[in-house]
């Protein structure tokens, strides 16, 4: 009689990594003890593990997100490390997925593998979710007989890169939020508050202060032409989006521009270095030759400046130059990153040093994002204070002048 598959439950956990930094996440397993054991393998000390409560909207189709792929990879790695056969691992993993679209994708991959395709070939049939790097690493794992180890590396890579992307989005969204809040507050004041004062001023019969008159003119312009301004903004947004989608030159120009922005540019710079180190460490540790691994790095760079640098480094390395000198000659990598790669090459532990480079710059990005968040809070208050205070002063100036005359 066949053994009944173990039912998996989703657990939410909190803990601390090797550096003592707080972290959290979700994991599917059959018990809390197994969750804690798996976290210990990842170098995380669990402080809290509990079953995840029911959530709304997860049972529907839903768009498959990169974190869904990361979770699927982690589950497959865990199942295969436990000695579960590949096809059965698909069944167990699919049984624990709540998102229907993701469950269907796992089912399709399983059917393709069951019909004779390799795991890597099955994944290549779904390029929207599994990129060339992912498929190449799975193929290397199948060929070397260490698929569970490679899946574990891929899972770690996906989790780290998605966490890094989330931090970048957080850093980019905060300034945008400040601007949006400032615009909304200003428009409300100009449309609702200033007209009330304008009616009062009409009875004064005296010339208004220049500052007050400017604010009233702006208020009238907003009320009369708001639909035109909104239309221009919508059309401009559409044209910019279309241009970026269709023009590689525009995308490349934007990539170069964002790296020059204050604060944000430095965050993106360090995140690109971290992604370079993480991708190269993952592929090189999987047994991929360095020259071929640099191809994967160029594809996963996320910025044309670092993609072009990776291609140039590949050319230099293929002619016999050491990686450290090729990185240094590119002129975009920090001295610390180059030095750590130099130590890795000399000691024969390049993959470990590249991983340390990735960890170091990921922590740098994390700290800078936290610092930016703390910095933006008083900036928000200052901007709103200046806007609201300026409008209030503009409205009360005539009243103050009238009081001084009386």
UniProtKB/TrEMBL annotation:
GO biological process: protein secretion by the type II secretion system
Subcellular locations according to the entry: Cell inner membrane
Protein origin, superkingdom: Bacteria
Family designation: Belongs to the GSP F family.
Descriptive protein name: Type II secretion system protein F
Topological relation to the membrane, as annotated: Multi-pass membrane protein
Transmembrane segment boundaries: 174-194, 225-244, 379-399
Pfam family, one: T2SSF
Organism whose genome encodes this protein: Endozoicomonas elysicola
Keywords annotated in UniProt: Cell inner membrane, Cell membrane, Membrane, Transmembrane, Transmembrane helix, Transport
Type II secretion system protein GspF domain ranges (all copies): 72-195, 278-398
Database matches in InterPro entries: GspF/PilC, T2SS_GspF/T4SS_PilC_CS, T2SS_GspF_dom, T2SS_GspF_sf
């Amino acid at each position: 009689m066949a053994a009944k598959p173990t039912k998996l439950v989703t657990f939410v956990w909190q803990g601390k990594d090797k550096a003592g930094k707080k972290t959290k996440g979700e994991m599917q397993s059959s018990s809390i003890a197994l969750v804690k054991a798996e976290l210990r393998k990842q170098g995380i000390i669990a402080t809290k593990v509990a079953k995840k409560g029911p959530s709304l909207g997860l049972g529907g189709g839903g768009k498959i997100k990169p974190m869904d792929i990361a979770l699927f990879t982690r589950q497959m790695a865990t199942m295969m490390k436990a000695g579960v056969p590949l096809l059965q691992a698909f069944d167990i993993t699919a049984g624990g997925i709540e998102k229907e679209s993701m469950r269907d994708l796992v089912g399709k991959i399983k059917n393709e593998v069951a019909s004779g395709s390799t795991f890597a070939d099955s994944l290549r049939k779904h390029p929207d979710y599994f990129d060339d790097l992912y498929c190449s690493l799975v193929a290397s794992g199948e060929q070397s007989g260490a698929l569970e180890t490679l899946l574990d590396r891929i899972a770690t890579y996906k989790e780290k890169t998605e966490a890094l992307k989330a931090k970048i989005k957080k850093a980019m969204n905060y300034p945008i939020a400040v601007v949006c809040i400032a615009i909304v507050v200003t428009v409300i004041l100009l449309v609702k508050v200033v007209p009330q004062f304008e009616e009062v001023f009409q009875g004064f019969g005296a010339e208004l202060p220049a500052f007050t008159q400017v604010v009233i003119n702006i208020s009238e312009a907003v009320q009369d032409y708001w639909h035109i301004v909104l239309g221009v903004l919508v059309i401009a947004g559409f044209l910019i989006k279309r241009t970026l989608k269709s023009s590689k030159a525009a995308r490349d120009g934007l990539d170069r521009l964002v790296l020059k922005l204050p604060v944000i540019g430095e965050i993106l710079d360090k995140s690109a270095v971290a992604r370079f180190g993480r991708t190269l460490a993952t592929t090189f540790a999987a047994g991929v030759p360095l020259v071929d691994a640099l191809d994967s790095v160029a594809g996963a760079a996320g910025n044309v400046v670092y993609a072009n640098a990776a291609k140039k480094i590949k050319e230099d390395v293929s002619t016999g130059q050491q990686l450290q000198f090729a990185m240094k000659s590119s002129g975009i990598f920090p001295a610390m990153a180059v030095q750590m790669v130099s130590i890795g090459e000399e000691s024969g532990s390049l993959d470990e040093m590249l991983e340390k480079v990735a960890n170091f710059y990921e922590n740098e990005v994390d700290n800078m994002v936290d610092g930016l968040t703390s910095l933006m809070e008083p900036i928000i208050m200052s901007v709103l204070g200046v806007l609201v205070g300026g409008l209030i002063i503009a409205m009360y100036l005539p009243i103050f002048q009238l009081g001084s005359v009386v």
